[in-house]
Design the sequence.
């Protein structure tokens, strides 16, 4: 037996026909256990923001729970949700960079990072361009609970995108990012002579074009991409978990490195805010580069 009050509340609040249909189908099946799992608890907001399976229910990632998380100031819910549906295929570090560049109050990134393909997430960066820490997470969580009733206008994405208050600064910020990146290159005149071969994988995420341009900006010879993992693909067809630190995740990249005679393998997770590397030790043996060694090198 399931709690009809929770079902009624979900159907009252949710305006997405697809997720409404999911709940109605579970009711028709009399699937009380699944309804309870999805509706009795609420997805929790923490320092990692929100993260969970993309399904209908208060404990899942969906339009309703994202709107509720976005309208902590109520009036901001429409533009934030519109931007989240509109801005895609940007690598992770672009968000904190943009917060600092624009002197913004916060930044929001929709990503499940290296979670399975069924998940999605919602990361928040504070005005200091850093992912939130306590006590800000608890303050946001309390504000979400105080603003669970979406306004009707919160569902109007097109109206926001057509508003004079909505500005798409994507290309401007991407160009500014690489201008800033160039300032970090201290051996620009020497880099073109470097014969070190690299293989890089984007793990079916957004990192390839940014990594390729970063090599170009630094004057390095192009790396060898893992072609089957180069382009964004939410199905992640070649890996179980798209986490470069997961066992077996670098197998295709290591095979490409052997094929090309590369010395280093570089890897980013799908939203390109997690990095891993491996270094050739012998003819065909690689070892993962420890995080502390990467940090020291940087």
Sequence:
């Amino acid at each position: 037996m399931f709690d009809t009050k929770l079902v009624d509340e979900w159907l009252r609040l949710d305006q997405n026909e697809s997720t409404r249909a999911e709940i109605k189908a579970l009711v028709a099946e009399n699937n009380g256990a699944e309804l309870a799992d999805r509706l009795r608890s609420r997805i929790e907001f923490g320092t990692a923001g929100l993260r969970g399976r993309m399904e209908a229910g208060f404990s899942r990632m969906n339009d309703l729970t994202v709107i509720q998380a976005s309208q902590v100031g109520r009036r901001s819910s429409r533009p934030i949700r519109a931007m989240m549906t509109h801005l895609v295929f940007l690598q992770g570090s672009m968000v904190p960079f943009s917060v600092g560049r624009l002197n913004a109050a916060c930044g929001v990134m929709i990503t499940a990072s290296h979670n399975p393909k069924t998940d999605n997430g919602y990361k928040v960066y504070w005005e200091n361009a850093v992912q939130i820490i306590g006590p800000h997470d608890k303050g946001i969580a309390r504000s979400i609970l105080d603003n669970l009733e979406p306004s009707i206008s919160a569902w109007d994405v097109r109206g926001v995108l057509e508003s004079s208050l909505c500005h798409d600064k994507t290309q401007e910020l991407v160009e500014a990012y690489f201008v800033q990146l160039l300032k970090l290159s201290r051996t620009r005149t020497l880099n073109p002579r470097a014969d070190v071969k690299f293989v890089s994988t984007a793990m079916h995420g957004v990192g390839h074009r940014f990594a390729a341009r970063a090599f170009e900006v630094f004057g390095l010879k192009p790396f060898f991409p893992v072609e089957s993992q180069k382009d964004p693909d939410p199905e992640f067809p070649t890996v179980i978990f798209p986490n470069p630190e997961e066992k077996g995740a670098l197998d295709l990249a290591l095979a490409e490195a052997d094929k090309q005679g590369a010395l280093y393998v570089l890897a980013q997770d799908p939203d390109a805010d997690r990095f891993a590397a491996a270094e050739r030790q012998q003819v065909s043996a690689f070892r993962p580069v420890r995080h502390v060694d990467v940090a020291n090198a940087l």
About this structure: The first strand starts at residue 50 and ends at 53. Residues 280 and 286 are 4 Å apart (CA to CA). The beta strands are 50-53, 107-110, 119-125, 198-201, 224-225, 264-268, 275-280, 286-288. The radius of gyration is 22 Å.
